[in-house]
Amino acid sequence: MTQHASPPRDDTGKVPSAGQPPVWRGLFAHADVRTLSLLGVLAALILVGGITKPDEFLDTRNLQLVLTQASVIGVVTVGMTFVIMSGGIDLSVGAIVALASVWATTVATQEYGFGGILLTAVLVGLGCGLVNGLLIAYGGMVPFIATLAMLASARGLALQITDGKTQIVTVDSVLDLGLRDAYVLGIPPLVMVFAVVTVIGWLVLNRTTFGRRTVAVGGNAEAARLAGIDVRRQRLYLYLLSGLCCGIAAFLLIILSGSGQNTNGNLYELDAIAAAIIGGTLLSGGRGTITGSVLGVLIFTTITNIFALNNLQSDVQQIAKGAIIVAAVLVQRRTASTT
Amino acid sequence: MTQLPTRRGLLFGAAAVSAGAVLAGCTSNDSDDEPAANDQPAADDKPGKAVTIGFAGPQADHGWLNAINDNAKSRAKKYSDVTLEITEGSNDTAQQIGQIETLINKKVDVLVILPADGKALTQVGLKAMRAGIPVINLDRIFNSPQAYRCWIGGDNYGMGLNAGHYIGEKLKGKSDARVIELAGLDNLELTQQRTKGFDDALKNYPNVKKVARQAAEFTVESGQAKMAQLLQAQSKFDALWNHDDDQGVGALRAIEQAGRDDFLMVGGAGALSAFQAIKKDDGVLKATVLYPPTMAASAIDLARALGQSKGVGGLAEFEIPASITLYSAVVDKTNVDQYMSTGFK
């Protein structure tokens, strides 16, 4: 709706369907092509895994493993996708995960058991998101700078809380969620949370005013403002959302690793941004899909898995990862421009 | 001219601090957070000439480095004649150089330096030596022997060697034994050295074959992730060597999650949680190979001996050695009690 009011601005210049009138429909069509090409990449990877290590790769346990390892960064990426779509960036996600995970695993917090740990993780995530959001939306700070500052402070605070020590979790109800006995119909609880967050994220983005406002703010903030959207409040909510996702991810990480450490969430910001970009989210905002981002996460996790199963070392892994990012983006651009 | 009051202030401060240290030393000897280790001083315990030791290390962002700081502090506290000037740790090369230059300007008697990056800090080591301040280089070695008076540190190659021998002996008589390795951060030379030692040791046991190796990042999170993949990749193996007990917390978690217990695991470094698991003896972790953080305590002792122009007690020489490589002992159920107090969190 707001698109008609938008003059050609630099940050929307890359929308490929700029010339076609039914904008929303056009966007969805393109999203579908992108999603299909991502599925193609994933299928190719599965083929490689299946050929090189048929027994280990094509195995229910391996599927559970890949999805479990994807769940922590996956939840972070869902939040990141919203932020990037609004034209922002959140560099502090890894640091917030670290801070939330150590705050939630101090001896004092652990005394409150399951609820205390979960609540602390979520509240710390929300709190950091609130600070980010206020600085950006009402303090007029550039997202890059505000979240970079949060990255530094949250990491510092995490180090101060732990004193560099590994905080081991002793609350059984939390630990048990990571064990095989907790799987329901073969689905690990972590994967269920990941799935629920993904579905909610998809619904919010595609079926609510909040989602449409996010796209509008990212496409052209000035036009969105003229159309009556409270851009500031929308931005505040988006960083809160990202913080919330980090809090949830921190709780998942506590379950997964049975501990809290200030080194947690190392370089999550880059992993989440890379997954979102591979998934077709435009770094300048205005376009992106949750499905694409989640597929991006799954592609990365599958690559790591295939490499580990084939006993390839980290140097080869890193080189190949870089090459695959470039390849995936090129393939997408090709398929997107030919339709 | 303006230096005079500063120096007097410094001396007075030093005296006050050491007086405080004596008091603290009297009261805190039996507190349990003090790493006990071997209490014998390098030189002798007779109070001698007052020595101000400057200590500069990297940011203590994980357990082992934190234990380095604790060991240095508590050792210095033991001596009434030692004043410790400890800097805020930093991983930033430029910042650490600045901190060391400050210590040089303060004219401390001896410097103990654990560089964030040995090669990058060589110049400032040289600068201190030229200014007449002897340097004890702790663990991460400088590029030039002229940059330090004495180097003391762990033995990464020996760590791998001892882990390999321990595993080799345990698997003796087992045909086609399969071993896997969970390495630390591959970017670091020390990881390559550990792996080299491990491989060399395994060559002595023709029945043992290393079938897989993955590198984690010394963090719990990466240990869990990489171990989970290794377990999926290797449905059957007999032994695992994990380079680092911190990432071992994650590795043990992955093993628990996969419900596996059909192999023996050896750790590395010497964390308290690893010692406790070894003592309990109800899981796969049977031993760990030390990379002792007590080396910081020894460095303080060496610095004190150097400042007082003494040699090492029990050695024939009048001076402290130029280089000391520590032994990476294997701690298992039989000797774990002795090491328990040195375990770091």
UniProtKB/TrEMBL annotation, chain A:
InterPro entries: ABC_transp_permease. It is a multi-pass membrane protein. Pfam families: BPD_transp_2. Its main location: membrane. Keywords: Cell membrane, Membrane, Transmembrane, Transmembrane helix. GO terms for cellular component: plasma membrane. It comes from the Bacteria. The chain crosses the membrane at residues 33-51, 63-84, 91-108, 114-135, 142-162, 182-205, 236-256, 290-309. It is found in: Cell membrane. GO terms for molecular function: transmembrane transporter activity. This is ABC transporter permease. It comes from Streptomyces aquilus.
UniProtKB/TrEMBL annotation, chain B:
Residues 1-24 form the signal peptide. It holds the Pfam family Peripla_BP_4. InterPro entries: Peripla_BP_I, SBP_2_dom, TAT_signal. Residues 27-49 are annotated as: Disordered. It is found in: Cell envelope. Its main location: other. Keywords: Signal. SUPFAM superfamilies: Periplasmic binding protein-like I (SSF53822). Residues 53-308 form the Periplasmic binding protein domain. Belongs to the bacterial solute-binding protein 2 family. This is Substrate-binding domain-containing protein.
